[in-house]
Amino acid sequence: MTPTTGVGAAVRVIVRYTFVCLLLGFFALPLLWLAFAPFDREPATAAALPQFTLDNFRELLDNDNALRSLRNSVLLAAGTGGIVVALAAFAAYALSRVRLPGRDGLLYALLLLSSIVTGTAAMVPLFNLAYELKLIDSQLGVILVLSGGLLPSAIFILKDFTDTTPRSYEESARVFGASPFQIVRHLVIPLIRPGLATVGVWSVAQVWGNFLIPFLLLRSPEKSPAAVVMYTFYTEGGQPDLALISTFSLLYSLPVVVMFLFVSSRYGFRFHGGIKH
Known about the structure:
About 70% of the residues lie in helices and about 0% in strands. It has twelve helices and no strands.
């Protein structure tokens, strides 16, 4: 290797690592602001060392709308996650075990349509449907709409897990008189538990940050989730209340992060099921 070649390689390495550091810094700055601003006496849009105080948290705890919206978010996320996981598990098992003409084509069509016709594009017919069913300003209506949008992808994910579960176990259970429901409950579900955990976390995360559907379907402020209420934090002068927004954002992000870390440490996130060998 000539000296010129060595210098060129060193320059390329320096440029590459400099670019990576700048990129990491670009994405890390918002996280640093979110970590420091709630503890700052006078938070601003720039990231800086805070003038430490806990007054922002006291102000947030005194805000009834903020705490109520977090409870509403938990209700919507838990309801939607439970429906999606339960229905997707049974549907994925049926699609995996029952041979139907055009089964795979139907599954891919549902996945494709759910990706193209998103909640935003289908909001007008969904709103009309909710109006006809008298589900406007109903948290149940929001849960049903969100569940319908997430089910195709959840079924697609869980079917891969179900396909890898041994059918010989099910045949043995049938010999001993197990019903189809008992087979699913006591045999299939424990084997696809990592998939259920993955779909559960994904569903909750999708609902937790959803703004448009609750904003359009819910009329009462006391029923609004945190993603909607966050947009109402303004000062009397019409400026964003950065102290309240940053503190609320920190508390708002913690449940999903904690759930992700718990599920990841216990089950891991992998896109296959079956038995470990």
